[in-house]
Design a protein that fits this description.
Blueprint (H helix, E strand, L loop, with lengths): L1 H11 L2 E13 L5 E15 L4 E5 L6 H9 L6 E6 L5 E4 L11 H12 L6 H11 L15 H13 L5 E4 L8 H16 L3 E6 L4 H6 L2 E6 L2 E6 L4 H7 L10 H10 L6 H7 L5 E5 L9 E5 L18 E3 L11 H20 L5 H18 L1 H21 L10 H39 L5 H11 L1 H18 L6 H28 L2 H20 L10 H8 L2 H14 L18 H7 L7 H28 L1
Parallel strand pairs: 3-7, 3-8, 5-6, 6-7, 11-12
Antiparallel strand pairs: 1-2, 1-4, 8-9, 10-11
Helix pairs in contact: 1-11, 3-5, 12-15, 13-16, 14-17, 14-18, 14-20, 14-22, 16-17, 17-18, 17-20, 17-22, 18-20, 20-22
Bound molecules: adenosine-5'-triphosphate.
The site of adenosine-5'-triphosphate has 12 residues, from α2.
Protein name: GH14862
Family: Belongs to the ABC transporter superfamily. ABCG family. Eye pigment precursor importer (TC 3.A.1.204) subfamily.
Keywords: ATP-binding, Membrane, Nucleotide-binding, Transmembrane, Transmembrane helix, Transport
Length: about 625
Amino acid sequence: MDQTRSLLSKQSKDVEFQDVFYTVDQRANFFRVTGQRQILRGVSGSFRNGQLSAIMGPSGAGKSSLLNAISGFRTTGVKGNFKVQRDNACYITQDDRHQTLLTVEELMNLSYDLKLKQRHKKEELLTKILKNLNLDHRRNVTAEQLSGGERKRLSIALELVDNPNIFFLDEPTSGLDEVTAAQCIRLLREMAHEGRTIVCTIHQPSATIYNYFDSIYVLAKGLCVYQGNPLATIPFLRLAQLDCPRHYSPSDYIIEVIDAEDGHLVPLLSELTDNGKLTYRANQPALEDTQLVAQQAITTLFVEQPKRQCLSAFFAGTAASTDGTLMGAAGALLEQMKFFTQHLHHRERREISGLQQFLVLMRVMLLRTMRARLALVIQLFHHTLCGLFFGMIFFQLGNQGGRMFDHLKFCIGAVLMIVYTQVMVPILSYPADVKLVKKETFNRWYTLTPYYLALTISRLPLQVLLNFTFMAMTYWMSGLPQQLWRFCIFVAVGLMISLVAEGMGLAIGATFSITNGSVVGPMLIAPLMGLAVYGFDFASQISGGMNLLMKFSYVRVGVVALILTVFGFQREELDCDEIYCHFGDPRVLLRFLDIEKVSILHQFGLLAMLMIFFRVIMYISLRKRCYT
Ligand SMILES: Nc1ncnc2c1ncn2[C@@H]1O[C@H](COP(=O)(O)OP(=O)(O)OP(=O)(O)O)[C@@H](O)[C@H]1O
């Protein structure tokens, strides 16, 4: 009985997949889909607990696609049956993205604070992990300053904090030299032998690294062409009359074979593995008396009889389980039930509340803002300089009744400066963060809502500081009335416009890559700017439809709000150096622009609605990016 239980619990950490397809749309351009391309073509297979498994294959074979499909990192376009405890798995991306400007120790603390509740064992656990991964001496170094191998180890250390059973790693050795790559694979092997299921993709490992793996899964053109232990590779290839030369590494040979002559051997090899439903084992690599054993790879999903009856001689154990014992349908069913119960259990088991996540993320985001000194100084310098330029251009013109056009230019210019700056910064910086958020939410560091709230609120202090700097300089230098309340509204309008523009930038940054976003951003701002200046000289004749459209241009709404702030609120007559100043009375200008009866609160309301609109779009985009 105990033996059965231990077998079942071990198997629940196994990963199995059956008939997996991954299809993507082929597009002529953004709007036109011309067809579909199948990246994975009905592959099956299994990765066992306690083993280090590699998904291998030539470039473009579909290795990352398979890893993403199994782990659930990508779900769009994926079809098939999976048995994997995703709530107990983590995914380590190829590029080892981490929160910038935080030290190794701070990152470990962040991971702990977001994942675990127990406080008293924190230091002990973190030290143990860092020591095991040989990172203890790098505690006070930021992630960007680490070497490639150290960064990879840090990625693993961060996930080890809550000790998941299953690790998926995309190309863990990419960018590492041979020695470091071998160290990394040895480390993963040790971790697997401690009782974890570790699956990684690897392009073409050296003979040494190849032999470190317990199990190899070779993909070519979206098909499985080999699955089994490294020792069985050469005997397996002999089944297809392929003799690996003595001096050749089996990993090099199998890749060469599947790449040769446009991959004409791929269908044959794929048939020999029943496209991943069979796995091969051998006790010795190439000797004549090698015992090659083929087994059913899938034991807990729907078990079919193998299609290739001609290979029946090899099936030493049909539906054999991990350690070769037979496992009947009842066992498989029990296993399925156990898996689902655990699945439910894990979902409920989140230890850290949303509020705690929010507080931890807020602290980290504010810390990162403070640490980004150069960016902070550049932004402050930019706002001060722009404020100074505006102040000089419109120096003491704010009370001149004869300079109506200058007043309009002042308001439009100030709004444009805020909009352009606040839209472009997130468009260029946020796409990199989205990838990190996807990884961290996938690995259950936090959920999207606390992250989103922390992001929104943590950016406020900087926004206030930058806008206050710019608006204060322009206000006082241009000689607008010395009224504190008017000045406060002036700054508040600037801040509101800035929050809407930032929301728009974040929405674009969350939806598009930097390249596409930097095209889409200016493309969207241009019509908004057009609407902002449209019809100022014939305001009373603007049609109702156009008026409605203009309400959607927050640039226009911002300009109107700023003009109302500067010239509204019963402002006294302006100075006039000429015989007659038509716009000497500010009410004449407001009437001329047809905004005499517009309330500033109404403009604030519109800006608030547009701010919410863009932030909702951003949230939806982020959800889509993170959860599909
Ligand atoms: N979302 C997608 N849209 C279009 N094509 C895709 C998409 N995802 C993957 N592909 C294509 O599928 C093929 C396999 O991609 P994948 O990244 O899985 O290959 P790989 O074996 O990991 O390659 P490499 O070793 O070079 O990273 C490639 O030709 C890739 O261009």
